[in-house]
Amino acid sequence: MTLDRLLSETGCRYARFADDFVALCRTRQEAEAVLAQIQAWVVGHGLRLHPDKTCVGNCMEKGQGFNFLGYRF
After folding, report:
1. Residue 18: CA atoms inside 13 Å, Cβ hemisphere, count?
2. Residues 50-73: pLDDT tens digits?
3. β-sheet bridge partners, residue 26
């Protein structure tokens, strides 16, 4: 299974460019579940997520945004 297929099957929206991606979820619980699936996929393929770039947050709350492709959301 590809990462794109995994992300598509989670039901969340996502954006991907090369080796960077962001998954957009409706709730923190959904985001944590999606992150667990992504983590399992990554480890299963001999890779690892960057600890400083991987987070779950609410981009609608000040200070919880994220950087993606040179932009701060």
Report:
1. 2
2. 998 899 999 889 988 888 899 988
3. none
